[in-house]
What we know:
Elements: H1 14-19, H2 26-49, H3 72-87, E1 90-95, E2 102-103, E3 110-118, E4 129-137, H4 143-146, E5 154-162, E6 166-171, E7 176-182, E8 187-192, E9 203-205, H5 216-226, E10 237-238, H6 244-254, E11 257-260, E12 275-276, H7 277-290, E13 294-296, E14 313-314, E15 316-319, H8 321-331
Parallel strand pairs: 1-3, 9-10, 9-11
Antiparallel strand pairs: 1-2, 3-4, 4-5, 5-6, 6-7, 7-8, 11-15, 12-14, 13-15
Helix pairs in contact: 2-3, 5-8
Bound molecules: 6-O-phosphono-alpha-D-fructofuranose.
Amino acid sequence: MSADPGRRPEAELLTRHLGRLGGPHATGVAAVVGAMASAAVRIADALARAAVDGRTGGAGTVNVQGEAVKKLDLWANDAVRDALAATGAAYLLVSEEMEAPLELGGAGGYVVCFDPVDGSSNLDINGVVGTIFSVRARSGRGPERDAVLPGTAQVAAGYVMYGPATQLVLTAGAGVHVFTLDRARGEFVLTQPGVRIPARGRTYSINEGNTAHWVPEVAGFVRHLKAIDVASGRPYTARYAGSLVADFHRMLLEGGVFLYPADAAGQGKLTSGKLRLQYEAAPIALVAETAGGRASTGTRRILELEPASPHARVSLIVGSPEDVALAEDFYAQRH
Length: 335
Ligand code: P6P
């Protein structure tokens, strides 16, 4: 039977893409990302069935089989942990769901920081959530040091976005690529190779409910984006899903700027920022920079930050290079 002329030529599978990685970390990164992908297939299925299985909401409930129901992010954490442990490639895990870094022991050469279900509060309203991951090479200076390596130590990073389609966005040192889950095959297939972020966008993404907590630099920048100036393509349009993966993915593909700034001193409780550096901001920053974008706190490059602890929080401004640079101009009062 002749091939359907409308059907795309056979897209490359993630497994084949991982088998073609180059460099000294190719084998380890392929093992770790392959494990993340297999856990993501299980998580995608669990998320899609959450309401049917009575698994939305908090922990402590009992399902129809009388089993204690784990919150999905706790269950997803265990799914990722077990998948990574089975590879023997990871020796240390840092997760939003585990207070202390988990030493898997063994000779694994990699540290994996991850947020198993980022934005899990969106689950109850069937919103988009994600799994974010960051892979760093073992430094040899011990697990305490390896749990707080800077973003520049990452050898791979990415996220899975559970939306109408389940997509895995990956950077492993050679570009940013989007893979889409073919549910019929249980495989991720390459659908957008070599993604480049537009130099500038027309969208901004920030929780405007926090306006009273913003430092003047952020207030000035957002006011600027909202002002009418046709020549410079303003006002920007606002988009905010309350899910970092969803809000960033839009910026990656269409350009624009996402901000989650720290609260001004005395104006709110998040004076260090809300987002976690190791498994939210740093992996997103690596994807952004590799795609030609920019990621900073407003004054410092995200990838160069050295966290004081594995769960350190940070301000994040990320997206198109020109938009993020403009935000930095406001921080530097150059504007
Ligand atoms: P807020 C989700 O809880 C999260 O960690 C990110 O995914 C998201 O960008 C942010 O917090 C949303 O926070 O305060 O706007 O609900």
